[in-house]
Amino acid sequence: MAKPVKIILAGEGGQGVQSVAEIIAEAANEEGREALYIPNFGVEQRGGVSVAYLQIGDEPIGAPKFQIGDIVVALSDRAVHRTKQYVGPETIFVYDTNIEGIEDDLPRNAKKVLGIPAIDVSKKELHPRVFNIIIMGAVIKATEVVAVEDAKQAIEKKLGYKFEKNPKLRDMNFRAIERGMELVASIL
């Protein structure tokens, strides 16, 4: 029995880490896999650090809690501090390079530390609102936890009502997934 993939996504409230975790869990369910998602909003839902704990596997997942993530994604300086405790020698740690002054705070015990310019890419190439979807593409590429087509179907399921009103949003979100995958592929 293969162990489930353990994912932690963390960022400031409003950065969309919970949405990303929900979409990845939905994609895993669509593939017939087991998915367990636990949101943690901390004390403040807006302006506080939001953490999503996600496990995906082929067998039932025995326990919702875990000590070490296979991939940890931190999207703010406070998220870096909050998630370092979940990093181990086999962890891939992903952070946004737009976070200033955290180089000394990045975990030293990770298997790989990957900095990607998700905020810059979303602002310059797409739209700031798809920043979290770029991150989702990065997670998918780094872990191969779900197929990209299943992730796109899960986005369609979650945001389809918005796509009906503005079809350009679909293309932008799908391009954001692909762009996130490209960013990670270039540094893996």
UniProtKB/TrEMBL annotation:
Keywords from UniProt, A to Z, are: Oxidoreductase
**Family annotation (Pfam families):** POR
Q: Which InterPro entries match?
A: 2-oxoglutarate_synth_KorC, PorC_KorC, Pyrv/ketoisovalerate_OxRed_cat, Pyrv_flavodox_OxRed_cen
Superkingdom of origin organism = Bacteria
Could you cite one Gene Ontology molecular function of this protein? Answer: oxidoreductase activity, acting on the aldehyde or oxo group of donors, iron-sulfur protein as acceptor
Domain Pyruvate/ketoisovalerate oxidoreductase catalytic: residue ranges: 13-182
Q: Which residues form a coiled coil?
A: none
What's the name of the protein?
A: 2-oxoglutarate ferredoxin oxidoreductase subunit gamma
Organism this protein belongs to = Desulfoscipio geothermicus DSM 3669
